[in-house]
Amino acid sequence: MAQHFLLSAASRTLSLRAIYKDGDDAASHTFCEMRWPETDGEAVCPRCDHDDAYTIATRRKFKCKACGHQFSVTSGTIFASRKMNFVDLLAAICNTVNASKGVSMVQLCQYKTAFVLAHKLREALARDVHTGEVRESHVEIDGAYFGGHIRPKNIKADRVDRRRSEHQTGKRRVVVALRERTGRTLPFVTMSEADGVVLANENIDRLATMSTDEASHWDDLHGAWEVDRVNHSECYSDHGKHTNMVESYFSRLRNMVSGQHQHVGPEYLHQYANQAAWQKDNRRTDNGTLAKIVVSNSMGAPVSRAWKGYWQRVA
User: Fold this and answer.
1) Which residues of the chain form beta strands (DSSP E)?
2) Which domain holds residue 78?
3) Most buried among 63, 132, 185, 259, by the most CB within 10 A?
């Protein structure tokens, strides 16, 4: 039996032990290299773009020799106003990429810190998922429902038909995913699976081909694309017609939501969907490279207006 990639040595090129052994200086240098790759990690002023700066070693900051502006490597990025040490930040990123089905906030570190940090990382990962590129190859499209569970009453006589709209919680959402068989996964959170038709029109090239199931709302796709359909009540694969790739993505997302996080609110579901898509698309990449990608995306992402100062706002 062939060894799974995640069990092989090739998948593990970065370890927590190595991160903490190298210390905060090495971690800080890693962030600098990802923030300013064009100067090999030498600081560039975010205000005037001057590439010559003094180093304030005691505060891990820089001072521009041209305009006198003081800044750090995380200034103006998604990690702006951080309080964590660089080594702890890099270790948290390592733990995140190591967890193929996600990592719960309690496992990551102190809950309130981890909650915001993990969402900032998901916001950075979304830059690789929602790139604006139109899908041009064979695309599988499907939807899966998440949230909105209605707990039945203890007494049978008190129970209601949970399928009826008047008994719904309003928290149920659909993740519609467009997944290329040889490419990337593109998820969206909507109220109805039928919204996937509009999403297909916006994100799939007319020369592409598609696969989906027998749900009636997908009938509208036949007017613009060549579409393979598979009836899941009869089989999951019919002579090459299947949606197994997109179903595999949903399996990962369900395991992440139910197995690790237990509960995900509808206002946050899109971020978990993006994380699952990113991890699915990069499942054959070693963890050292994944960590560098996350750091690079974080250094290129602007200040998070949703998560910076989150606990100060909600307190």
Assistant:
1) 53-56, 61-64, 70-71, 138-146, 173-180, 185-190, 209-213, 226-230, 237-238, 241-242
2) 13-129+301-314
3) 185
User: How many Cα atoms are found within 13 Å in the side-chain-facing hemisphere of 140?
Assistant: 23
* 62 in a structural domain: yes
Q: Which residue type is seen at 288?
A: G
| Burial status of residue 182 (CB atoms within 10 A of its CB: 0-12, 13-18, 19 or more) | exposed
Structural domain tally of the chain? 2
Pairing mode of beta strands 241-242, 237-238? antiparallel
- Between 100-109, 207-216, 249-258, the lowest mean confidence (pLDDT) is in 100-109
Say if residue 257 is in the same domain as residue 305: no
Convert the pLDDT of each residue in 19-54 to its tens digit: 999 999 999 999 999 999 999 999 999 999 999 999
Phi, psi of 138 (to 5 degrees): -80, 125
Q: What angle do CA 61, 65, 70 make, to 5 degrees?
A: 30
Q: CA nearest 249: which of 303, 311, 314, 186?
A: 186
Determine the 3-state secondary structure of 146 from DSSP: strand
